[in-house]
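W.,

You were right to be curious about this one. When I first looked at the sequence I had no strong expectations either way, so I just let the prediction run and decided to look at it fresh. Below is the sequence, 393 residues in total, followed by the output.
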Amino acid sequence: MAFLTVHIIDDEQQVAEMLAVVVHMAGCKAKIYTQARRFFEENKPSDENSILILDLNMPDMDGIQVMRLLAETGYRLPLILLSGYDMGVLHSAEKLARAHSLKIVASLSKPLKLETLQGVLQDHTPSEVNERICSVSNDLKLTANELQTAIHNNQLVLHYQPQIDIKSGSLAGVEALVRWQHPEHGLISPGLFIPLAENNNLIGDLTAQVIKLTVEQTSDWKKKKLMLQVSVNISAENITSLTLPEQLSDMLKNHKLDASMLTLEVTESALMSELVTSLDILTRLRMKGIELSIDDFGTGYSSLSQLYQAPFTDLKIDQSFVMHMHNDEDAKGIVKICIMLGHELNMHVVAEGVENKETLALLDEMGCDIAQGYYIAKPMPADELIQWQNNRV
């Protein structure tokens, strides 16, 4: 099923009507707005099963202003961006949208190939987009006290997203992703509570609990003869805690796990917060045998010299590049360079955000090592992972 309603904001009436024809061909309802302000006057933030086609270049209110207003007023409609500008402008607009926590489905250049738009609409259903987007519900009010209780009362649960060896197709490992099993609201995605943790000095406790659950699950899998490399994200607060290497080493020894089975993922921005202390801790983690991955590579602030200094074993290419590489030459070029750089520095290269077989094939051609994304498998509970793996064998 495609989106029920496609909102089109384009100041050129003829172009908007042409887009509406394509929308109808894709089995959707089209609503045209030649003035962006009309869209906000006629719709509510809770509008579901909809998507917004947004032209960046408009005289009344341009697309950048529209995105800002979408974020300010709580709209979380997935976006298809249109622009007659060069790809550099589109890329900047995409980055801004993500900074506003808006979901970008596609960025298309004018003059537009209508079959391209039709394919985008048919390939992205509401359920698929809603699974990937972390939007804040107006009805869900979470407090720091609730989150603190959740951490200490074992309400945090982990889902695991498989990572495959691209050449062999075998299961190479998993990434542990936290969820909150709220007693009243059910399963809550991390996008709704990670900012709450960061803003209330709870991120250290939250991450410690996630690491504990990860190690316990890895130990349980080992007992069931399933040996898996498990990666987990750590925060800037964690990598400035001088006791972290010893704590993790002791935890792994108590569960009789080889330290190399655990990979800690560190974002570039976290590394930059206190570089000297971070390098101290990361180096001691590696000395204890724990693997280290630089996460979301290409989106942070590290220089090549800082990447060279830190003892990373893995380089994880950000999904914003991977997801667009099959139809965006600039994104493809960045992915290729990241793979080459990682290999030159003797790192394994992981590509996240693999959404289709074309992207996986391109990564294979480029020599990427590991792939992760919804085309392979969505995050799942531990027991479902075993069944998923058994079905593949």
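Here's what jumped out at me. The longest strand covers residues 171-182. And, maybe more interesting for your project: The domain at 5-132 is CATH 3.40.50.2300 (Rossmann fold).

Coffee later to discuss?

I.
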